[in-house]
Design goal:
The structure is a single chain. By secondary structure, the chain is an all-beta fold. It has a domain at 1-75 and 86-141: YVTN repeat-like/Quinoprotein amine dehydrogenase (Methylamine Dehydrogenase, Chain H), CATH 2.130.10.10. It has one helix and 28 strands. It has one helix at residues 3-11; strands at 23-29, 34-39, 42-48, 56-58, 64-69, 93-98, 103-108, 114-119, 125-130, 135-140, 145-151, 156-161, 167-172, 177-182, 188-193, 198-203, 209-214, 219-224, 229-235, 246-248, 254-258, 265-269, 275-279, 286-291, 297-302, 307-312, 318-323, 328-335. The strands form seven sheets. A four-stranded antiparallel β-sheet has the order 3-2-1-28, with no helix packed on it. The protein is globular and about 45 Å long.
Length: 336
């Protein structure tokens, strides 16, 4: 698909209304190359999107879903990546899914090996981490082209735009830092040191602070997102805890952190940064996490067991485990 055709396809989706009532959950499945659609605690559709779908983002009007797909081969933890074979760079990009028809209608460029990304509040630009290239690609959605590339620390992963749209935070696993990028000029304005192997980022609603999960550091880094400096390191306890995915409650009072091999969710008070609860035995290596619109339910993507856990956000009780696609990675929750 040419850039002009891709741009037209994306623009044509803008007026599609979201459906009303209930909750709908979208799950990217890295191994099976699709996105699962969950309604009423069951998978009601599987949408093929391309190789290794990971990061995903739902448009505010509920009309379309953006999904990062990559031709880089999957590697198990500790596996020698030089033995995996050559990547399929033609498979890299951002798939654009029209949710009314459950079909991919366009593919935007995403740089090399796109993994995670975020969208500016005006819906005009994508900021995409390119793990293999140690860069962040900036994509103009209307033009369907890369308009900039920002060098960041090695193995960039998590990408989150500050709520005011002026700054973008990007984690670098290998460099143990967060890069702060000016969203307008694309200048790198700060490098913020973190605990080992930072993964994901969430801002407080006012954009003044950021919480960063740090897998190998068994911690969450609390950052002053205005001055771009660390405030303090929050220890995440529990056997095998490796903080991975992160999300906040709709009212902004809580931050939820999945612990990967720790099999749990840590609950943080967003105002104080204190850990107030730990929900144990959530699932097998929970990674991606989402919160229902009313804040009552949490959803975790459990890669090794190919399922999604539904968790009561007040009690931590696992209400059910939903069989899903292969190696679920990311979650997006929207009203239906």
């Amino acid at each position: 698909m040419t850039p002009l055709v891709a741009a037209a396809a994306v623009a044509a989706l803008v007026g599609v209304p979201a459906q009303a009532g209930g909750t709908r959950v979208y799950v990217s499945n890295e191994a099976s190359g699709d996105v699962s659609v969950i309604e009423n605690d069951a998978v009601v559709a599987r949408i093929p999107v391309g190789k290794r779908p990971r990061g995903l983002w739902l448009s505010p009007d509920g009309a379309r879903l953006y999904v990062a797909v990559s031709g880089s081969p999957r590697a198990a933890p500790g596996q020698d990546e030089s033995r995996l074979g050559p990547p399929d760079r033609a498979a890299d990009g951002i798939a654009v899914v029209e949710l009314r028809s459950s079909t991919v209608v366009a593919r935007l460029p995403g740089g090399r090996d796109p993994e995670a990304f975020d969208v500016t509040p005006d819906g005009a630009r994508l900021f995409i981490s390119n793990e293999d290239a140690a860069t962040v690609s900036v994509v103009d959605i209307a033009q369907a082209k890369v308009i900039g590339s920002v060098p960041v620390g090695a193995e960039p992963e998590g990408v989150t735009v500050r709520p005011d749209g002026r700054v973008v935070y990007v984690t670098s696993e290998e460099a143990d830092e967060v890069s702060a990028i000016d969203a307008g000029s694309l200048a790198l304005v700060a490098r913020i040191k973190t605990a080992h192997r930072p993964r994901a980022i969430v801002f407080t609603p006012d954009g003044r602070r950021a919480f960063v999960s740090c897998e190998q550091g068994a911690a969450v880094e609390l950052i002053d997102a205005v001055a771009h400096r660390p405030i303090r390191r929050i220890r995440i306890e529990g056997a095998g805890a490796k903080p991975m995915g992160i999300a906040r409650s709709p009212d902004g009072t809580r931050v939820y952190v999945t612990t990967g091999r720790g099999g749990s969710i840590a609950v943080l008070d967003a105002a104080t940064g204190r850990v107030t609860a730990r929900f144990s035995n959530v699932g097998a290596r929970p990674w991606g996490i989402g919160v229902s619109g009313d804040g009552k339910l949490l959803y975790t993507a459990n890669g090794p067991s190919d399922d999604v856990s539904v968790v009561d956000a007040s009690t931590g009780k696992v209400l059910r485990r939903i069989p899903n696609g292969g190696s679920p990675w990311g979650i997006a929750v929207a009203p239906r």
